[in-house]
Design goal:
The structure holds two protein chains of two kinds. Chain A is of the alpha+beta class. Chain A contains four helices and six strands, in the order H-E-E-H-H-E-E-H-E-E. The termini of chain A are far apart. Classes of the chains: A alpha+beta, B alpha/beta.
């Protein structure tokens, strides 16, 4: 096999996107509810790994691509723990090549 | 800018919103176009292709000024297993029928056309709610601003909060949405043309089905821009969640496949994007209008994935135009009631390009059959292997070979049922 495209981790790919931090927390999770969640669909649907699990649900909205899918899967397949809205106007992700 | 005196507020400066604002402004309507991103297109992501006819329809010859990456000459589909693939390619007589684009450039340009026609664009503005009086939408609320208008056109995308606030929708089901992800990979123009067998300015669109989605409902895509490739995957939200497969890992499967590596090798990834796609069609709303408000574009499910063409931007443009025309007629009558605006639904069904959504309305259900993404691509590749390979151990006739390949993989009844349903659906 000749040269391959360089492998790039998700973290590195996420670092390619510009984000402007919203001081207003636009995603809020009632993580107590997640303790009883058997499916934890947010961990799998999010393409930017905003959600992770280590004894409890952790989330970091910096890196959020605002797809809104976490809200849907959480409320329909999970523990209904996520409240979600778009970031304040002008904040959040900004794509240059979408 | 004073936010008073606007007759219509259009929420979202994507293709639907800008087309609606353009249509209204041309007729002298005072129209406010609101966008939550820092510029139109900054929040938008798509695979990569726009069908030209819709743009021609609203702009005439001026459509050629659009920020076009490449006109699509070649259409390809590849069925793949982990280590083999089977591809079909179609070369179009006239490539001008569709072109690849980048939304950050295209949406910005289209919004500028609306501004030139007289629409007022405000960016960095998130619309939070609609003003409702006696069940009738009377304007919008954006942060501290309450903006009264005669009518609102909601073009606020898949997650459409406005349609929900106006009581036209409930939250979508996970099986009604897909997750789309893409890498943009920088590659010199001459390399793109060499690898895809294209002349300068010509482009290719390619679809991948099979191993790349890791058993999930979905597939991959590859579009050629001027000097970059848009490589992506779309997977069913319910499928990824319930099978506990992190959605972004299917990108690795696609990227690492030999067939794909040949296209992208020594390219440099310069952006990673994601977006949610509604798959339910117009059914996602109880109806696309209410007193004082219409819904258009993704927010109304006005897009079409019929399994082989993926249409969003052209349909969004035409649904935005239909919404604007409905408003123009209502304005003459000075009546923005639900009864007056219900003409919108008729316009959608009468528009030949949008009618496609209703013709292919059974497709989403058909595409929920996971055999399409696992067993069938594998069967196709294995059958090709059996047909083309000669190992000296004797060959069977093709029909016998095909029968042998299906054994244990899929029952004859399922196969026939899928074929017949397919014939009815597509």
């Amino acid at each position: 096999m000749p040269e391959r495209q360089e492998e790039m981790s998700l973290d590195k790919r996420l670092a390619l996107v510009s984000f402007s931090k919203d001081p207003d927390p636009f995603i809020v999770v009632d993580t107590k509810l997640c303790q009883k969640c058997e499916t934890k669909p947010c961990l799998y649907i999010c393409p930017a790994q905003v959600y992770s699990w280590q004894d409890q649900l952790n989330y970091n909205t910096e890196g959020c691509m605002e797809t809104g899918a976490c809200l849907i899967v959480c409320h329909k397949l999970g523990a209904k723990a996520i409240s979600w809205k778009y970031p304040t106007g002008g904040k959040g992700v900004s794509f240059k090549l979408g | 800018m004073s936010l008073e005196g606007f007759e219509v507020a259009v929420v979202g400066a994507g293709p639907a919103g800008s087309a609606a604002a353009l249509t209204l402004a041309r007729e002298g309507v005072q129209v406010l176009l609101l966008e939550r991103g820092t510029f139109p297109g900054s929040k938008n992501v798509f695979g990569g292709r726009i069908y030209s006819y819709a743009l021609k329809r609203i702009l005439g010859d001026q459509w050629k000024d659009a920020p076009i990456e490449r006109f699509v000459r070649k259409e390809g589909i590849t069925f793949m297993t982990a280590d083999s693939s089977f591809s079909v390619e179609y070369e179009a007589r006239d490539p001008k029928g569709s072109f690849t684009a980048v939304r950050a450039k295209f949406d910005k340009w289209l919004a500028e056309q609306a501004e030139k026609a007289g629409a007022s664009l405000i960016t960095d503005s998130r619309v939070d709610d609609v003003i409702i009086e006696d069940g009738h939408v009377k304007g919008i609320i954006a942060g501290q601003d309450k903006i009264p208008t005669d009518a609102v056109i909601a073009c606020d995308g898949t997650t459409t909060s406005l349609a929900r606030k106006a009581g036209l929708a409930t939250m979508l089901e996970p099986e009604e949405v897909s997750m789309g992800m893409k890498d943009v990979i920088e590659l010199p123009a001459d390399k793109i043309e060499e690898r895809f067998g294209l002349d300068p300015e010509e482009g290719a669109a390619h679809v991948f089905v099979g191993e790349c989605s890791g058993g999930l409902r979905g597939g991959g895509f590859l579009y050629t821009n001027k000097d970059s490739l848009a490589l992506g995957m779309v997977v069913g939200a319910d499928d990824a969640s319930m099978k506990a497969i992190p959605s972004h890992t299917v990108m690795d499967r696609l990227r690492n496949h030999r067939k794909v590596q040949r296209f992208i090798r020594d390219g440099k990834t310069i952006e990673y994007d994601a977006h949610m796609i509604p798959e339910a069609g117009p059914k996602m709303l109880t109806r696309p209008y209410t007193g004082g408000m219409l819904v258009a574009g993704d927010a109304a499910g006005h897009l079409l994935n019929n399994g082989y063409t993926f249409r969003g931007v052209d349909m969004a443009i035409l649904s935005g135009v239909a919404a604007a025309q409905t408003i123009l007629e209502a304005r003459k009558r000075k009546d923005y009631s639900a009864q007056s605006l219900q003409a919108y639904e008729r316009k959608l069904r009468d528009e030949p390009a949008l009618k496609d959504m209703y013709i292919f309305s059974k497709v989403p259900r058909y595409l929920r059959n996971n055999r399409l993404y696992g067993v069938y691509p594998e069967l196709i590749c294995n059958a090709a292997e059996a047909i083309y390979s000669v190992d000296g151990n004797g060959k069977r006739k093709i029909y016998k070979e095909l029968r042998a390949q299906t054994k244990g993989k899929v029952s004859t009844i399922s196969l026939i049922r899928d074929l017949l349903a397919g014939a009815r659906t597509f």
